[in-house]
Amino acid sequence: MSVRVRTHTSLWLWPNLLSLDAPFVAVLWQDFLARCYPAPLHPAGRCVLGLTVWAIYLADRLFDIRHPPAADESARHAFYRRHSLSVAILLTGVTLLDLLLALVWLRPAVFVHGLWVGAAVALYLTVFAFWRAAHRYTKQPVAAILFTAGVFLVAWTRTPHPQRTLFWPAVFFCALCLGNLLLLETWENGRSTKRGWLWLLLLALSSCIPGFSAWYMAIGLSAAGLALLDLRGGALSATARHVLADAVLLTPLLFTPLVGAAPFISR
Fold first, then answer.
1. For residue 78, how far is the Cα from the chain centroid?
2. What's the pLDDT at 17?
3. Is 264 inside any structural domain?
4. Phi, psi (deg, nearest 5) at residue 41
5. Which residues form the domain of 143?
6. Which spans in 191-250 are helix H?
7. 260's torsion region: left (phi>0), alpha (psi -120 to 50) or beta?
8. pLDDT digits (tens, 9 = 90+) for 63-114
9. Angle of helix 214-232 relative to helix 162-188, nearest 10 degrees?
10. Phi, psi dihedral angles at 28 (to 5 degrees)
């Protein structure tokens, strides 16, 4: 059954359609990480992460619409198809600003590590743009890993013994991101997630094992919210579930007052 896309888009959908939800989530969890596992966080690190994630999502959407539209094309893809030129101009501006800030403002250590992540992102975009057979089983896991790497990049360069301190927080966060991406993919394609809610519930319960820290509680609450959406959200529209699936990743806002301010450096 085809989906009719309205010419007038509701205001509350614009952040999702413009892919602004992903950079906001990334910067929010980056800040939350610096609060839970104190590490200096420069304004440049926040700005560059947000712009980089935004550019990646814009580019990924433009790659997606290179192919003819499907009969059941999502509202988001239809939006990008109608406004492809405007999005391409926006992507150019975001990318140039991102590069300028990274070259002028980032600390050398973060910049060098960021080059490796940037190379991996470029490879990701290239492979999945031209090798459609790889989409089904590998795109979401790779995207979750790269998203996690971006969020953890600054903390990893400033934390003593990061493998010991940040490895498991990164694993749990990556699992949460993967759950979110897999749900969005299956809902968008009209497929059943089968027991997706069960795996997310297990993630929520396992988040209690490391102790009742704010980081793991936020992950557990987000995972439980995704599980509930998958289990009981069938009556909602695909667009509404997509927006809510990103909204449940905002749980750090509930715990921020409990962990104080992130270490902040103006330069």
1. 21
2. 82
3. no
4. -125, 110
5. 11-259
6. 196-206, 214-232, 238-247
7. left
8. 888 877 776 677 777 888 888 999 999 999 999 999 999 999 888 888 998 9
9. 10
10. -60, -45
The answer to whether 101 and 48 are in contact (CB under 8 A) is yes
What burial letters (b/e) apply to 228-265, b meaning 16+ CB within 10 Å?
bbbeebeeeebbebbbebbebbbbbeebbeebeebeee
57 is a domain residue: yes
Q: How many CA atoms lie within 13 A of 170 on its CB side?
A: 18
Is residue 1 in some structural domain?
A: no
Secondary element (H or E) of residue 110: helix 108-130
Q: Please measure the distance between the N-terminal and C-terminal CA atoms of the chain and give it in whole angstroms.
A: 54
- What mean pLDDT value characterizes the chain? 85
Query: Is 56 a member of any domain?
Result: yes
Contact partners, residue 119, CB within 8 Å, separation at least 6: none
| Whole-number Å distance between alpha carbons of 172 and 78 | 33
Number of domains in the chain: 1
pLDDT at 262 over 60: no
- CA–CA separation, 94 and 62 (whole Å): 14
